[in-house]
């Protein structure tokens, strides 16, 4: 079972929790226990949704690869049928046979019948499959899984930006605090650095 890092922070009136490994997964509660419970529920839902979408996209891509092979086989079949028709036509036009005193034409004895309807039905089935798969993988199609994934990622990024705002403020605070600390250390200085507190304290002694 995969584990995720969970960060719980104290806000003004409640607690918030998020996972750096799962952007967009955020939970809040009035107590740590409540936040933990809400966080677990939200993580499960977000994780299940992402996994479900990725599985469907992976399945469609696999079907797309299989369909490509089927289309290649169909094209090969059509070419062979066309070649057969040409050979039969040539045979009928150019050949007369006799058996003893019996003369005959190939066309009178051999009939070539090709079910064009079945070929067209197979072609239309492949075209329909291609449209369905492409439709599901089209990010601009509002009914597609690719569109749902794109919107989910947008939503996650928006939540991530909101989540990052207080964190950025805290990081800015730490950076300011560090600068003040550096200034403080510079002002205090040491006994060997002129114009510092410790330097003047040493001179007073």
Key descriptive features of the protein:
two-stranded antiparallel ribbon, 3-stranded antiparallel β-sheet, 205 residues, 68% helix, 5 helices, single chain, rod-shaped, mainly alpha
Structure description:
The protein has 205 residues and is mainly α. It is 68% helix and 10% strand. It is built from five helices and five strands; from the N terminus they run βββαββαααα. The strands form two sheets. It has a three-stranded antiparallel β-sheet with strand order 1-2-3. The chain has a two-stranded antiparallel ribbon with strand order 4-5. Helix 1 packs antiparallel against helix 3 (116-136).
Radius of gyration: 38 Å
Secondary-structure element order, N to C: EEEHEEHHHH
Q: Which outline best applies?
A: rod-shaped
Total of helices: 5
Mean pLDDT: 78
Main sheet summary: 3 strands, antiparallel
Secondary structure class reads mainly alpha
Total number of strands: 5
Q: Which sequence of strands runs across the widest sheet?
A: 1-2-3
Low-confidence stretches: none
Helix percentage: 55-70%
Proportion of residues in extended strands = 5-15%
Head-to-tail CA distance between termini: 67 Å
């Amino acid at each position: 079972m995969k584990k995720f890092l969970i960060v719980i922070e104290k806000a003004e009136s409640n607690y918030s929790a998020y996972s750096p490994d799962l952007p967009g997964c955020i939970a809040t509660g009035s107590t740590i226990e409540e936040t933990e419970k809400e966080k677990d529920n939200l993580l499960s839902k977000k994780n299940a949704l992402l996994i479900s979408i990725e599985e469907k996209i992976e399945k469609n891509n696999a079907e797309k690869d299989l369909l490509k092979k089927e289309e290649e086989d169909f094209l090969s079949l059509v070419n062979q049928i066309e070649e057969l028709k040409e050979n039969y036509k040539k045979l009928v036009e150019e050949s007369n046979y006799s058996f003893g005193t019996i003369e005959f034409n190939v066309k009178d004895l051999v009939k070539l019948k090709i079910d064009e309807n079945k070929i067209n039905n197979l072609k239309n089935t492949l075209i329909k499959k291609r449209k369905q798969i492409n439709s599901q993988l089209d990010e601009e199609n509002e009914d597609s899984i690719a569109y749902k994934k794109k919107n989910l990622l947008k939503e996650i990024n928006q939540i991530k930006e909101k989540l990052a705002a207080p964190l950025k403020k805290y990081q800015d605070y730490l950076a300011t605090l560090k600068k003040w600390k550096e200034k403080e250390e510079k002002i205090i200085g040491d006994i060997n650095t002129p114009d510092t507190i410790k330097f003047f304290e040493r001179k007073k002694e």
